[in-house]
Amino acid sequence: MWKRGIKSKAWNGPQKFRITILLSVILILVLLILLVHDNGRKNILSSGLLKQKWNSFESLVQFNPTMEVLNGTELIWQIPDTPKAVLFLAHGCSGRAVNFWDRSSTCPNCVGLPEERLLVLHALTQKFAVLTISSAGRCWTFGEEMFIVKDIIRWWVEKNKLQKLPLVALGASSGGYFVSVLATQLKFSSITLMIAEGRFDQMDITEDYPPTLFVHMPKDQSRQQKIDENLEILRNKGVDVAEIECMEFPLSSHFFADRIPGIDQTFSTKLFELFQEKGFIDENGYMKNDGRATRWKLALKESNIHLPDKHLAQHIQEELNLAFAYHEIISLHSDQIFKWFESHIS
């Protein structure tokens, strides 16, 4: 019919009109699908954020870590009943092991930053024994420190009789680079590199390199490009790889109360309204700049708004960085991360 119609002069005008209408409808549908898809990526993340609160695991697991200093290196860990795997967590630059754990009688100096603590709680809930170690300096190094950490992990695993359990690792930023190299020294079942492309351009990768998951923020386009390159390098070596993209999301009046222990709804609303007033967020609640470049602390001072606890400034800063989604540790995709780990546990 269509071919015959195209040949017929009598129907040529109306036929062209119908085709034009059809193409217009298809174009509109495609644009709507792309818009929904783009918004969907943000909404899925926001939806996950709303469901996951700082006390989401309260009825399932409690912090009860053990601290130890071994030859000048700080270790903090917790082993759940009947653990099924061991997870080593490596912090980023300026981080410490104390960031992963809430302050308690067994860890009086612990900080419990929002994203780090939720990663640990998720791991403990999934029956992963968790080991955190502090770097010697501001960031991880790849010489002697690599062998020190390797020996500590082996010693700790043997000490706690966990040798038969699979070993996995997650490193963020500097910790991600560190884990990518440590994986050539220790046998991990799989690893996760968070906001880090790894050091694969400086290593001899073999087919027995562990399955690698990249969790990153595409807004950092330079790192995105390097991750794309390293995904290809690893695939070509026969290594199982995957990636999770972390997108920006809007703030809300309950955001800070939901994410940060010690902040109530009243202060959360006050902080959100201040961000609106100062123009730190757009009309939809999205951060206009990275949290590190936002002078929110000065705005608090000028508005005579006082933090419930001065130590919470670091917690708020982390969540602002997270919302902007350029470079920050993230717990929102913990379900997918631990499914990755579990899928490679043999």
TrEMBL record:
InterPro entries: AB_hydrolase_fold. The chain crosses the membrane at residues 20-37. The keyword Ligase does not apply. The keyword Transmembrane applies. Keywords: Membrane, Transmembrane, Transmembrane helix. This is Secretion-regulating guanine nucleotide exchange factor. The lineage of its organism: Eukaryota, Viridiplantae, Streptophyta, Embryophyta, Tracheophyta.
